[in-house]
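Lab notebook, bench 4. The sequencing result for the construct came back, and we need a structural model before the next group meeting so we can plan mutations. Quick request posted to the team channel:

Model the 3D structure of this chain.
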Amino acid sequence: MTLKQLQNLRVIDQDITNDAHGTYYDQRSIEQLLNYGFILLDKPNGPTSHETVAWVKKILHVPKAGHSGTLDPQVSGLLPIGLGEATKALIVLLLGPKEYHALGRLHTLPPKEKLADVLKQLTGKIFQKPPQRSAVSRQTRIRHVYEIEVIEQKERLLLLRILCEAGTYVRKIFYDVGEILGEGATMIELRRSRVGHFNEDSNLVKIHDLVDAYALWKENGDDKKLRRIMMPIEFTLSEIKSVVIRDSAVDALCHGAQLAIPGILEISPGLKRGDFVAIYTQKGEVVALAEATLNEDEIVENTKGFAFKIKRIIMAPNTYPKSWRTKPVVNN
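Done. Here's the predicted structure in token form:
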């Protein structure tokens, strides 16, 4: 199975991959997924995002895990959690939109036309100042609210679906609705239903499902349920452009080198200078995240020079053999 982001790439050169090194992204063992996988967890009400990640680390016996996009303790819903080296790729999900379902109470019952007008005013680019109890500095900033839809209304109870830019405070939107109406409004419950291209239909799992799946694998050797839960980290990168490189270029990147044109085999069509990209092996494994320093045509037309600036290395060094040379040490 070819990853979505690796289909229909522009071929610059061809090479073969050595099956003795690396692993095809969809053929990783459970042990490898515990270091290059992620989970779409259905966070319950109560614990903080940090506490939830700590539980996952304890359940799976992994030394490192991290989440993408903090949810307040009283908020439930989709919390992507990366395992091991995969935590480095979760930054990509912070770039995408978030969707929430918010239940609140209006302090007065406005006409439907007036409520619709208020929600329209709060759609688009809005000014927001984080609430006093927040983890960021309380500076007014602009956030984009893409959609606000009334899912259901029963008297003064209002259920909204809100699609917005990352970093938008949905509780503040409900507060602003009340301020504009004049009588106030209070949010009662909030659930995150989408992060980037993942939603509640995208293999969302609960904590107890994770406990059961891990126990089945450890005690009975049955890894089917755990494989359904832990997905390759490459699935999080489908919405950004891609670069495929030679096996011989992989380890150099993992040791901090920049990506030169001779190491490139394929690129996404329409690539532009400044684009944020993911770099892959020929087996579909993500190696690093980078920024393009040349346009598509410049990469195709040139035979030397650096084309990408590495921003974050994901693959561990020595996964592929060293094929690069170092300068000899001169003894004085």
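The CA atoms of residues 91 and 311 lie 11 Å apart.
Will bring this to the meeting.
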